[in-house]
Amino acid sequence: MRNKVTVVGAGNVGATLAQRIIERGYANVVLVDIIEGLPQGKGLDMLQCGPIIGSDAYITGTNSYEETVNSDIVAITSGVPRKPGMTRDDLVLTNMNIVKSVTEQVVKYSPNCIIIMVANPLDAMTQLALHVSKFPRNRVFGQSGVLDTARFRTFLAEELKVSVDDVYACVLGGHGDTMLPIPRLTTAGGIPITELLPKETIDKIVDRTVKGGGEIIALLKTGSAYYAPAAATAQMIEAILLDKKKNLPCATYLDGEYGIKGVVVGVPVKLGRTGIEQIIELKLTPEESAALKKSAEAVRELVNIMKLG
Predict the structure, then answer these.
(1) Is 131 annotated in the active site?
(2) Residue 110 — φ and ψ, nearest 5°?
(3) Which of these is catalytic: 175, 205, 253, 271?
C-alpha cells in the first residue's frame, strides 16, 4: 500500500511538487485547491503521464479536504506568492488567514500526519501551523534550508567548476534576508571553501544566496521560484517516507537549542519516518551565534504581529 501525500495549493510550487512525487512512484497524491477545476485538470494531466514515465502512483485533484483523509504528509504551498518589491514580511497577515484555515482542515482529516510548510513567510507560517495544529514540533516544520543550501551549492559549484554533488553547504537562520550561510562549515570535496576561494568571492556568493529568491522574482516579473522549492520539498518528503534519517536544514521550532527558545528558525535536523528525529546543534563561533539569534528575533517579530497568544 502506497503512502499518501496531500499537496495543498495547485499553483506552480504545489503542482510541480505533486509531479515530482508522482514521478518517484512511492506515494499517491491528493492535490487540493479552492479554484474549481484547477487541481482536477492538473491532476488528470499528471495521471496520464503514468504509462510514459512508468509510475503507477495515483493523483486525485479536488476542492475538498475529505479526500485528503489519513494523509501521511501534508505539504502546504497555498498562499499569495511574493511579487516584485514585496518582502516576505509583507505577506504575513495575508497568508496568516489562509494557512490558519488550511491547517484546521488538515488536522480535522489527518490528525496523525506530518505537516511541511512551504508558504511564505516560511518560518512564521510554520510557527502558525504548529500553534493551530497543536501537533508536537517533530511533526510540523518548514522547507527553507534545503532550498537555501541548494542555491548556495549551485553558485559555489559554478564558481569552483565542480559537481554540485561535491559541495556541502551550511545555511542557518530564517528564510529571508537574515539567513546565515556559514562558509567555514561549507565544503567542496571535503575541503572548506575558505581554503578554495578568496573572501571577496565567498562574500559575493553569500550575498547572492541570501537574495536568491528576489533575483528570480526580478527576472520573472510576474511570479516567484517554484522548480527548486518543489524539488527541495520533495527531498524532505522522500527522507520521511523512506525513513532515510537524512541530515537536512529545516525551519524548526527551537526550545533552547542554540540558545534560542520559543521560535521557528532554520537549523540542521535528522529527518526520518516520524519527522524530525533529532535537532543537530553545531558548534558556532560567537559571531555566528549572535547572527543566528538576530535571525530568530526577526522571525519572532513576525510571530508577534500574528498575536498567537
Answers:
(1) no
(2) -135, 70
(3) 175
